[in-house]
Amino acid sequence: MDAGQGLSTDEVQSLREALAAGRKPRVVFTASAGQIAGQVGQVVELTDPEVSDEFVVVRFGRDELPFSPADVAMAPKGAGRRVAEPKPEPAQEQPPAAAVPEFVLDTPRVPAPRQEEPKVEQVEKAPARRAVKAVKPKGPAGLTVTLAYAEGEWTVAAQQGSKALAKPYVVKPAEALKMVALVDVPGVQEAVEQILGTERAEAEQQAEKLRAELAEIEARLAELREAR
Question: Which residue windows are coiled coil (predicted)?
Fold first, then answer.
């Protein structure tokens, strides 16, 4: 059986739809699957591809093992039935061989390899179990914590892999300065202190302006009180 080059993205989606409909699609193992290349199995589950590259769970014999999309390909129609056909073929070929005297010498060599086929099937099951040992679980996705400053506000966000753990939320300038102090990188803390200094100066100017306006309002109020 000619094994394919692995599953495409569309074929993986087709498998998901088939499993959702209650079917168990057949696949054939490719050369990257090792000694079981060419054998046929049934897809019983698709796990999370972000957790492991080997998210295609295939039932092969009595085992259910995880494989990557490159290890399997869509099986052609009727592939599951043709796996068992090589056994009866020798029985059909032997009568013509016995009927023609010229082929009598070839008949002893025909049963010999056919009788070894069950042994080959038994040997192939053992590597399938050993393939589990080769599966290396993926470690946890990388964690990224981002401290950002924009439009007068400091924000912190956290993301693990492609999943957002915490959306950007506002923190106080003092907290931002403490976070930056943990990063011993030349120039970073100076840049943060410069930003805070600019904000402090702007806040002081605004406070002086408000004080002056408040003083004017209080003076006007005092005049109004004296006029009564």
Answer: 193-227
159 and 198 assigned to the same domain: no
pTM above 0.90? no
CB neighbour class for 203 (10 Å; exposed up to 12, middle 13-18, buried from 19): exposed
pLDDT of residue 44: 95
Query: Is residue 114 scored above 70 in pLDDT?
Result: no
Residue 128 lies in a domain: yes
Instruction: Report the alpha-carbon distance of residue 146 to residue 160 in Å, rounded.
Output: 11
Structural domain that includes position 210: 175-228
32 lies in the same domain as 83: yes
Confidence of residue 152 (pLDDT cuts 50, 70, 90): confident
Same domain as 128, residue 74:
yes
